[in-house]
Amino acid sequence: MIPKDHPRYESLVTREKIVEGVKLGVTALQGLIAHGRGEAFDYILGERSNDFALKAEKVATAMLLLAKHPVISVNGNTAVLVPESIKELAELVKAKIEVNVFHFSRERVAKIAQYLSQFGIEALCNCDAELKGLSSARRIVDSRGILIADVVLVPLEDGDRCEILKKHGKKVIAIDLNPLSRTAKMADVTIVDNIKRAIPRMVDFAKEMKDLRRDELESIVKDYDNKAILKDAIDGIIAYLENIKKVL
Ligand code: ATP
Ligand code: MG
């Protein structure tokens, strides 16, 4: 048991969730490493949703609301960290949820889908189609989901699939605490925030925006500049570290 008054209580509870996910066969062992990298970036971002994250979260939610076939792609880390808010977001923006993993086996995909079903999520996981041009297992998709999607939300994505999704004409929204990653640079919208904060914020934005007219949503998306957001994220890290240095 992690004592509630531990100064890093939340972070430790999150680690336990990921470890539990590995034990259940839902999260890949490599997911532990990816999580550790995320934690390191979260630390130097101040473990909060900064303005550049909130801006991207709002635009991303508007894009999902505008989409014809929005899909939320879920891997092993996402499944154990934010199942409830993924479900809520999907309902609000009328998106499908699809299981898509880098470390692929049919058994693991089925385990993730089964895990999600406990939360009332019916995830697509037919693995009956391929994204041409991609050699990793991320190419294996569902013909009712990512294959025909126009906007895909890909939390904790790897850069190469992001690139291929774009080549297939899809708009890609990434959630990645590392503003320097290939994914971050490749996505149309990069949310530099912890998925644990990002998805619940998007749920709030979706509640606020779900009844807006299309032209109102379009005006939210229109002038978005992802490069500027990534620069703001890097400036945000620098400013946060400078501040910490001052008060040491
Ligand atoms: P690239 O995009 O350059 O190909 P990578 O493939 O090496 O990067 P992965 O090892 O696939 O990156 O890790 C996925 C990314 O997810 C990491 O950059 C990490 O910072 C990020 N990440 C991990 N946990 C979280 C989290 N809880 N919230 C948001 N991002 C996270
Ligand atoms: Mg990768």
Quick structural gist:
The protein is of the alpha/beta class and 248 residues long. The protein has one domain: Rossmann fold. The protein contains eleven helices and seven strands.
Helix percent reads 40-55%
Number of separate structural domains? 1
Backbone structural class: alpha/beta
User: Briefly, what CATH class?
Assistant: Alpha Beta
Q: From the 3D structure, determine the CATH topology.
A: Rossmann fold
Shape: globular
Give the cofactors and ligands. Answer: adenosine-5'-triphosphate, magnesium ion
Mean pLDDT: 95
Annotation field: number of helices: 11
**Sheet with the most strands, sense and barrel status:** 5 strands, parallel
What is the number of beta strands?
7
Strand order of the largest sheet: 2-1-5-6-7
Hey, roughly how much beta strand do the residues contain? 5-15%
Q: Which ranges are low-confidence, i.e. pLDDT below 50, for 5 or more consecutive residues? A: none
CATH superfamily: Phosphopantoate/pantothenate synthetase
Separation of termini?
32 Å
Radius of gyration: 17 Å
Element order, helices and strands? Answer: HHHEHHEHEEEHEHEHHH
CATH architecture: 3-Layer(aba) Sandwich
